[in-house]
Amino acid sequence: MIYGTGTIVPRLLNFLLLTPFYTRIFEKGEYGVITELYAYVAFLMVLLTYGMETAYFRYASSEDSPRRVYSTSLFSLLLTTSFFLVVVLFFAQPLANLIGYSAHKEYIIYFTFIVGIDAFTAIPFARLRQQNQAKRFSMIKIINVVVNIFLNFFFLLICPRVLMNDPHSVIRFIYSPEIGVGYAFISNLIASGVTLLLLFPEIFKIKIIFDLSILKRLLEYAFPLLIVGLAGMVNEVADKIMLKYLVKIPPGTIDPNHYAMSQVGIYGANYKLAALMTLFVQMFRYAAEPFFFAQYKKDNPQQVYADVMKYFVICCLVIFLGVMLYIDVVKYYIGSEYWSGLKIAPVVLLANMFLGMFYNLSVWYKLTNKTRFGAYIAVMGAIITIVLNVLLVPVLGYVGAAWATFICYFVMMVICFLLGMKYYPIGYDIKSIIGYMVFAMILFFGSTLIKIDHKIYHLAFNTVFLLAFVITVYRIEKSKFVKVYT
After folding, report:
1. 424-447 tens-digit pLDDT
2. How far apart are CA 378 and CA 265, in angstroms?
3. Which of 57, 59, 226, 325 is most buried by its number of CB atoms within 10 A?
């Protein structure tokens, strides 16, 4: 619970506070900048940590000198991160030109330091976890996001209002309206710097030892994880990076780049409406992996895995219906100028449900030590993501990007299921799972066909639909619930 608090709570705070804030103070093109650049950050974080965090966990618990493992892995990240910083800062302007930010080289500089600091601190955070310092781990994570959110509100809300009322305020020395969206990145950079300072005891209180033999074992173990991580990150963020290059610009558009970034902004904002599903899947992953491994040693673990899958899908469908049946309320989470993209919400929600089902199904290759299949599936998913974005986005715009994500995760789920049936058969209740999915879709599409002008009556009617699903599931699964809880 404590580790989950340190990871999920920061994301939940960002979800609840920053997205509504950004989509109300930034116009669509500016929010598109945030969406795109943070997609690059996610990809670079995987590249710059190159599986070293997991490799550290693996060898710190098996080597005679865990301090040597920690020191070697930390020094390795220090070297690679420093090299990254030097190279990117030297080529900041060409890189800015390459990705369409020639007038804002400073964005590249901000993100270079953000990614560099976050990548380097991955090992100190891993050491806190390895030493069971859960409270300190969570405290630093939460401080990071609190600082970030506070500075966002300070720079983007408080400072402009203070200057509006008092143009000669001392605020003018630390705030410039021309920086605009850049303050979102500056806030993140300062928060990352604070995190680095808080981790100084973990960084400097040990003797630096660089053991080449340990480094070799770490890298050999980490390299396959890097491939899997990069492929998985392509699945998650490639759409947000590729969208502006693939979207079709309407004839006569005065500023094509602004139009493209507006589409990225609309897509990114509406993608956030699936955050409840995403957070649920992430929390499930934290609990599921140790649970699955623990069950493996008990009698008939396959039945437990099958039950977990069914109830996981039921929970996801409740979230799906909860968001979509109340979309007239949920949409106020983002600014009204982004509502044109609400049509992708059901697609993205279901896509993330399929991703969660894939995590459930992946238990077979983790338990049988056939993790190479996880790499194969992830790489295949990355190829599907790229190809479908190239094919669909020019035709359907950002809707095509949403469907590319949906198809990618669906195919990954199906292939993982088929391979699992071959190598580690689990008797999933496919009939019930498909039945619940079909029932949920009937309720959802039924709600869209019934037009009720009065919003309160419409929401009340949709509440009946949601209750119909919950009550039906409970009646069918009642005997199982009684067995589990008694």
Report:
1. 889 999 999 999 999 999 999 998
2. 27
3. 325
**In contact, 382 and 238? CB cutoff 8 Å:** yes
Residue pair 385/239 in contact (Cβ under 8 Å)? The answer is: yes
Does 167 share its domain with 48? yes
Tell me the helices (H) and strands (E) count for the chain, helix number first: 23, 0
In this structure, the answer to whether residues 118 and 169 fall within a common structural domain is yes
What is the maximum alpha-carbon separation in the chain? 73
- Give the residue-averaged pLDDT of 328-338: 91
| 65 in a structural domain | yes
Domain presence at residue 216: no
Tell me whether residue 171 is exposed, middle or buried, using C-beta atoms within 10 angstroms of its C-beta: 0 to 12, 13 to 18, 19 or more.
Answer: middle
User: Tell me, what DSSP letter sits at residue 371?
Assistant: T
Which whole number is the average pLDDT over 211-239? 85
pLDDT range class, residue 61, cuts 50, 70, 90: low
**Whether residue 272 sits in one domain with residue 199:** no
- Final residue of a domain: which of 155, 176, 210? 210
Residue 246 located in a structural domain: yes
Sign of the four-CA dihedral 375, 378, 384, 390: negative
Whether residues 402 and 261 fall in one domain: yes
The number of distinct structural domains making up the chain is: 2
Q: How far is CA 180 from CA 161, 170, 186, in A?
A: 14, 18, 10
User: pLDDT value at position 129?
Assistant: 80
The single-letter DSSP state of residue 14 is: I
- The encoded tokens of residue 184 equal 């979102």
Question: How far is CA 31 from each of CA 21, 260, 476, rounded to the nearest angstrom?
Answer: 11, 12, 45
In this structure, the answer to whether residues 265 and 354 fall within a common structural domain is yes
Are 168 and 289 in the same domain?
no
Which pLDDT score, from 0 to 100, does residue 3 have? 61
Q: How far apart are CA 24 and CA 21, in angstroms?
A: 5
Q: In this structure, are 202 and 266 located in the same domain?
A: no
Task: Determine contact, residues 57/223, Cβ cutoff 8 Å.
Answer: no
Predicted TM-score (pTM) of the model is 0.86
Least Cα distance to 233 among 345, 356, 381, 52 occurs for 381
Per the domain annotation, does 450 fall within a domain?
A: yes
Q: Which domain holds residue 29?
A: 1-210
Which uninterrupted H or E stretch holds 89?
A: helix 66-90
Per the CB < 8 A criterion, the answer to whether 317 and 436 are in contact is yes
**Helix, strand, coil percent content, the chain, rounded in steps of 5:** 85, 0, 15
User: How many Å apart are CA 160 and CA 177, to the nearest integer?
Assistant: 7
Q: Indicate the SS3 state at residue 405.
A: helix
Question: Counting beta carbons within 10 angstroms of the beta carbon of residue 46, is it exposed (0 to 12), middle (13 to 18) or buried (19 or more)?
Answer: buried
194 and 243 assigned to the same domain: no
Give first-to-last CA distance, the chain, whole Å.
24
Mean pLDDT of all residues in the chain? Answer: 88
Position 305, amino acid: Y
